[in-house]
Amino acid sequence: MRLDLFKTLWGDTRPWPHIIAEMRAAAFDGIEARIPDSAQDAAEKGRLLRQEGVPYIAIALTGGGVIPHQSATVADHLADLRAALDRAGIMQPRFVNVLGGNDRWGAAQQADFINQAHEIGHRAGLHCVFETHRSRILSSPWIALEVLNQCPNALFTLDISHWVVTCERLLDDPLDDFSAFIARVHHVQARVGYDQGPQVPHPGAPEYAAALAFHQRIWAQVWAAQASRGYAVTTLTPECGPDGYLHTLPFTNAPVADLWDLNRWIADTERRHFDAFRQRRNSLASGDL
Prior knowledge:
The protein is of the alpha/beta class. The radius of gyration is 19 Å and the shape is globular. The protein contains 9 helices and 8 strands.
């Protein structure tokens, strides 16, 4: 199995040619970004991606911005998804990460959205996966486990930092068994959260070593589950971001770290982590351990 790393464009509004050059210089394999708002912009960026040979993971937001409109119904979210997929198809994404729905919905309503969205993606010829995210569907691991059983065909994007904040603790109690969900994870967004926030100031800081180790254990469990399902490629996007995630100093609002440095740190660390994971699996398979 191969690890493909994607550069997030969250908070990066520069022209895509500059971003692609930076991505390549840091040995990333592709980019993950929101679907452009207009068909013309999507067509132009799609041409650039094809010319440069850059893989693309599309992000579809439904029902408003990252925080959805509270009055938006399931039908409203699905209508937004159809429009977004019309634009995404021009760009030929590897798959579409759906940031959809509302955390106020119960498990049955969340499952209804996911099942209909999955079918909409299938008809559009696009593979939709559904992200764990606060304020959205799957914001709680306990709801997610209920939803899972009602969505037999759906696959998911795991950003477990959101669940850590939702539950206000690292989810490492013996009762915290997410193996059923992990068995359905298609993509990982890699950010290290902690009990009081979705993003530590720096994932390499020793005071957050336990949080990093927890997230890495989960990511390795995803890789093992994917390998057992026959995946040839696993995808991971380091996703440290702005918007209150990045810590700042009081009064000056100066950031305590550089986002690109943080995401490169995660990429470099997870390359090594994945290599060690793969070597261990190979050794176990050959009986060397």
